[in-house]
Design brief:
1 helix; homodimer; six-stranded antiparallel barrel; mainly beta
Amino acid sequence: MNITPIGIIHSPFTEPKGMPIQPAGAVGVKGTVEVFSEFQAGLKDLDGFSHIILLYLFHRSEGFNLQVVPFMDNEPRGLFATRAPRRPNPIGLSVVQLDRIENGILHVQNLDILDETPLLDIKPYVPEFDGQIDVRTGWLEKVRKTVSKRRSDDRFK
Amino acid sequence: MNITPIGIIHSPFTEPKGMPIQPAGAVGVKGTVEVFSEFQAGLKDLDGFSHIILLYLFHRSEGFNLQVVPFMDNEPRGLFATRAPRRPNPIGLSVVQLDRIENGILHVQNLDILDETPLLDIKPYVPEFDGQIDVRTGWLEKVRKTVSKRRSDDRFK
């Protein structure tokens, strides 16, 4: 199946190195999501949602390894137990805050995405679908509360 | 960019009609996620997570309309303000509960996915990344608390 970008994400992060590794580490980082004109009719009603899910291509990632040492750890972990960008299908997922929509441009916050990233889909964030409570997070349990301070390095370039 | 399935999702739902429209409506529905052998090394450490995000192909969906009448509503809404399966890039996203992993087979619950759906990616669910509080949900505000009782019909076949 073939994937076609429906827009472009613009962010302050022009290089992978030093960027936040998740939206939780990108609180207040502002950017825009440009939706191509032929898809803008699909944005109707989206401004009622405070948070949206962006699906996008990890366009700077090539290939993958099935075991990786995540940014937040020093041990090799199974790729699917991590959010590393080099994946068999390099599709990224971020929940961001939607501030407003103007002329097909979404103004968003908490953006942990590289500048010029191809957008694949936008979905509304709905707590009943997407939020979970009583969650265990395996190897991340010890480190996840520090994620806001972590920054990426070169390892997944 | 080309997308290649890394596995197959098996569920009790062999037809779109009558299936739950979101995991919240599929509480207790059990199924399995079969990860192809060449990707199974990437499952290491995943069993520490109680919830996982599945990305998959809406393989029974063809084409799309930029305005749709969602299952939970009677008015046309912008496609990107809905979770309808017919999308420019027909990629689905569900958060499911992971019970156990045996021989590359993930046993999961709360499955709102059609049988034989091609799996694209598995990501660990992490509240700090994926959970949001103080959320507005636009047109869904009035209806989302009833989502567990809604079932799909033929409209997105």
